[in-house]
Write a structure and sequence with these properties.
- Helices cover about 65% and strands about 0% of the residues.
- The chain is mainly α and about 350 residues long.
- It folds into two domains: about 90 residues, no CATH class; about 250 residues, no CATH class.
- Helix 6 packs across helix 13 and helix 9 packs across helix 14.
- The protein binds iron/sulfur cluster (2 copies).
- One iron/sulfur cluster binds next to helix 4 and helix 5.
Amino acid sequence: MLQQEKDIIAEAARQLTICNACRYCEGYCDVWDAIEIRREFSPHDVLHLANLCHDCRDCFYACPYIPPHEFAINIPKIMKESRMISYKQFVFPKAFRWILDRFAQTYFILTFLIFLALMTYVVFLHGATIFYKSYLPMQLLFPPYIFLLLEYSMYAYVFILWYIEGSKYWKYISKGAKVEIKSVFKALGDVFLHKNFRGGGTGCAYPYDKGNYFRLVAHALVMFGFIIDWVGILFYPFVSLSFILLYLLGSLMMFAGSVTLLIMSGLADKNVDTEGISSFSGAFLLLSVSGILFFLFLPTPTWTIFFLIRVSSVGSIFLLAPFSKFIHPIFRFLSLVWNRQELAMQQKVMHAP
Ligand code: SF4
Ligand code: SF4
């Protein structure tokens, strides 16, 4: 760990120690239950709590000790900085750690390069006229066996790297504990129901101090839209009209969600965090817009160009997934599992005869 990262962890531990004495924010999210069962905050605890935090910002606006108070408490900001450290610490291979600081540039350059490669392939095989003169269906554009080979290789690549990163992260936060299946199911429920986006009943104080559910809804739209599209494409080329419509629905959901998240990140209170527009939501916006456009232009030659943009942006997201904010679903999920497991152990100890 770099000295600057050690300083961030030490600062997080300082703030969490004050919170543990105060506990005013109990009930906002799982972080506060996890704090309660600790007296001290080791780097293991800090990284776990950082991924348990969903950046709802309720605790910032509730806190009387935010800057300029001498305690200088800003939990959402320090948790976010600590989360970034966790991504950098467990990213695999380490040589790609730099991408975490340059996601936007890397994503758009990589998307462009994949797009150029696909254009070259398509023009070489079918000629440039397919972009403006003769409509070519997907099966003829890319033979299904090539498409499926590339698609499943990419999934294998992402899941293997995620597994390595997730295993290292789990070992670190749980200090080698075994995963309990019951906690896994409970954590899955937390993820799908967006438990930590609810602020214990007030919603997220995002983009500014009024609690609301826009962020919950927008995140759910992006997440479920992505899952719907992913499931839809898994069955290609054995797809019926209902699958195609489902795929369009997924893109529309991602579009609505990512636009809302982009606007919110632009409006977000800079007193909490100076970060500007979210590049991650920008990537999803490109993905969803190209997905909608290629459906709208079916069956005309123009669909090809949007389809290639769509495939390039999807490919880029998957290729960068192990080295970008796309690690967050894995680490956050594992922290939710560990939280469930820890609380269950605590209950057992309390009710032991
Ligand atoms: S964020 Fe502030 S109000 Fe909330 S528990 Fe910590 S110190 Fe207390
Ligand atoms: S999820 Fe919200 S309430 Fe919980 S620690 Fe993060 S910012 Fe604070």
